[in-house]
Amino acid sequence: MQIGWIDFSKTDRDKAFEALRLLDGPRAVDELGFGRIRDAFANYFFPGTSTIQTRAKYFFIVPYAFQEAIENVDIKNTSQLLREVEEKIERECAEILIGPNRSHLSQDSGIIGSVSLNQGTWVSRKPSSIYWNGLRKFGILAKNLSMGQYAELALAQKERMLSIASMRHVKGRADDGFDYDDKDAGGGDYETYWSIQPPSNWKDNLRIDLLPEEADILHRHISQNTKGSLLQLYLDNYAEAEKANGFPDLVVILSKYMDKQSIELANMAINFDRLTYMAKVRFNIMLTNNNDESLIDEWESLLNEYRSNPFDLDIDNLFVKLKISSGGDWGLKSFLKSLQSMIKEGDNGFAKLDELIRKREKGIKGAASKLGNVNGYSVNDRAGYDHYDYRFFSARRIVRDIVTVEKR
Predict the structure, then answer these.
(1) Beta-bridge partner residues of 141
(2) pLDDT band per the 50, 70, 90 thresholds, residue 169
(3) Closest to 136 (Cα-Cα) out of 48, 254, 258
């Protein structure tokens, strides 16, 4: 099967690459199409984060790299600017962060490109694309612009400023009494795109840990721009929140600080995970031809837990609260309703539930359906079925980077 898209912008391209990346590897695939709701919950609770963000320092490295690149007089267009940032400056930063003695790096150093550079290549997903949404959400990028939009506007402004400087130089030579104000001449339309500016020689002694002043700036930006989110509450109540072992724990700990809507959505998220986790376990039982005893035991345990602690997920309300349209989702809403109903009612051997899951996967995957080729799989070919953490652990990495510096 060939997949293509029209490349309108870098943002569109990154979204397409991310969608294709999710098709690579058995543990990454969203077999039953739950990702749309999972991501909506994650964006609500932990805005500006992503599962592939590694360290908070990149919220500074990326803006610094763009501001350095825009000052390069040889850069005239958007492609040159993005190439300068992604292929030169960000790569140079990775080399500096890794340092000459690469053996000292631990697997969890969080330095983007540490593995690729050791193999003589550079990463396909650059820090700028990984962190751009967070830079917008946290107000570090002062305007809600895509990377391409920013590049075009910043370069146009640079051209205007160069033109003004040239005019000033010419007029100043023609009239010794000439007094010129750049901002007045520019029509007062000078824009400041970043709320932070790089220190001089910012790459000297660059390290992956935040500086104390950077930790303070990032803490302030997150607190001011994501008010009421679990990210903000985690950051501002770190000592308590750090005791959480996962998303449900975090909700319990922070519930006294959460508003009514956030509590309602958090309970929905927990029940959505319970429901979809059961579907994913059932999918894997079917995938392994009922030959994986551990999966069958887990299914029985989940059923017993459900019967002793049943829940009703208001699926219509879930779509309303998350502002998700029911179009373009391969019948996700009706699938979830049927899934919940069939688990609640049960049937002999859950044959109806299995058929529902089989049709759902085939509707999404078509000829690539795994359940349509079940004889080709074994107990070693499970599809990913982890519980959803809604980016809790990704957010924890960022929060810890900020708070551990502040506590020194």
Answers:
(1) 194
(2) low
(3) 48
